[in-house]
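2024-03-11 09:14:02 INFO worker-7 job=invfold-0412 stage=load source=structure_tokens
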């Protein structure tokens, strides 16, 4: 949509939520969400504070510094400049005059940190204009994490590539063991990283390969020095995520577990079965609700998933949220599948992607995590991406 349509769409959301306007603010890139909406290159150096005001009705207003008058010139609306700090505050009061509720990238009590991009001092300044500051989180997702068709294709490609790459990793480990050749966690990590590079994919950080007790640490990082060897009879967890090396590409993110032998132990099988069942139940909940066009909140999915593990007696060992939004960053700005670390009450919306990745982590023993991604189709169906794991992989 062009900017006129985009502004009109925002104003519709503002009217629905009874908000008088949206005040977008940034300084030195601290509010990436505002920059994303305003379509400002994240690498574009802007050294002065700027504001973009979208009222519920009427024309937007740009408030920019006199030495950087062109930073918002691609946007519609009246331009107002300031030089001195006193002028900035005065102009801001004039812009907000008559408004009562103003949306910003703010989360009360920092409840959803991904939304809290405006610093407390700026919130104080805006409140001094006799307005209530409310969160833009209710409508922001529509502009910061909805996938275009091209982006969806990039996600599907990444998810399929990850599924193929982890299969290659299991094969590589198995071949080393069959030939009695040494293989360790870090070598697997770098094998996967090399596959990313050779095939035109990038990643935030490096993949995880964790053996036995190391897999009980959800964010374990194998190092070059001191990496554990992989031997017959070992349990291994591999977590990998990547996206294409192209602007706007979307991440895929999956986790798999395997066993170096002819059959996993009963203990391994028990924990895997519980985790997989939790993943299934969360996915079925999303599928049913989405088909019925009912509201789905990230916190509610987390509760459905967590309940399965709690009822099995392992609730204390599920130590992270069920999933996260996926976008151009692996942990995107949209609704997370979370009632533990945060209470994410934001609704899931069409054409967005997120992970479902429950886990049970038994200190000193091992940990199991099952992870795939889910995309919400506009037609009321869902799409599981990255493949799924119904049994522990044997290698």
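2024-03-11 09:14:09 INFO worker-7 stage=emit residues=395
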């Amino acid at each position: 949509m062009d900017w006129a349509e985009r502004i009109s769409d925002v104003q519709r959301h503002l009217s629905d939520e009874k908000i008088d306007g949206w005040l977008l603010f940034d300084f030195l890139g601290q509010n990436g969400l505002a920059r994303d909406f305003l379509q400002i290159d994240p690498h574009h150096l802007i050294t002065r504070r700027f504001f973009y005001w979208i009222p519920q009705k009427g024309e937007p207003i740009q408030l920019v510094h006199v030495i950087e008058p062109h930073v918002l010139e691609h946007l519609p609306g009246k331009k107002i400049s300031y030089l001195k700090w006193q002028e900035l505050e005065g102009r801001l009061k004039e812009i907000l005059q008559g408004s009562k509720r103003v949306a910003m990238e703010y989360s009360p009590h920092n409840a959803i940190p991904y939304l809290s991009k405006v610093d407390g001092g700026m919130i104080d300044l805006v409140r001094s204009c006799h307005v209530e500051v409310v969160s833009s989180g209710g409508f922001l997702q529509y502009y910061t994490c909805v996938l275009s068709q091209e982006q969806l294709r990039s996600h599907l490609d990444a998810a399929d590539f990850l599924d193929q790459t982890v299969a290659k990793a299991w094969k590589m480990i198995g071949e080393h063991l069959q030939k009695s050749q040494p293989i360790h966690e870090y070598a697997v990590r770098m094998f996967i990283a090399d596959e990313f590079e050779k095939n035109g994919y990038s990643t935030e950080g490096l993949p995880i390969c964790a053996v036995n007790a190391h897999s009980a640490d959800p964010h374990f990082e194998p190092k070059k020095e001191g990496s554990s060897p992989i031997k017959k009879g070992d349990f291994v967890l591999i977590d990998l995520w990547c996206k294409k090396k192209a602007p706007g590409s979307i991440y895929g993110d999956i986790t798999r577990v395997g066993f170096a032998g002819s059959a996993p132990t009963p203990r391994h099988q028990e924990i895997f079965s519980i985790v997989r069942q939790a993943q299934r139940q969360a996915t079925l909940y999303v599928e049913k609700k989405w088909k019925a066009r009912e509201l789905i909140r990230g916190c509610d999915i987390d509760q459905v998933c967590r309940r399965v593990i709690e009822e099995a007696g392992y609730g204390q060992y599920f130590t992270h949220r069920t999933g996260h939004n996926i976008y151009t960053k692996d942990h995107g700005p949209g609704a997370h599948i979370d009632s533990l670390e945060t209470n994410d009450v934001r609704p899931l919306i069409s054409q967005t992607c997120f992970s479902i990745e429950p886990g049970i982590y038994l200190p000193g023993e091992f940990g199991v995590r099952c992870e795939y991604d889910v995309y919400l189709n506009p037609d009321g169906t869902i799409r599981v991406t990255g493949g799924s794991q119904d049994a522990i992989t044997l290698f």
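2024-03-11 09:14:09 INFO worker-7 stage=report msg="The first helix runs from residue 3 to 16."
2024-03-11 09:14:10 INFO worker-7 job finished
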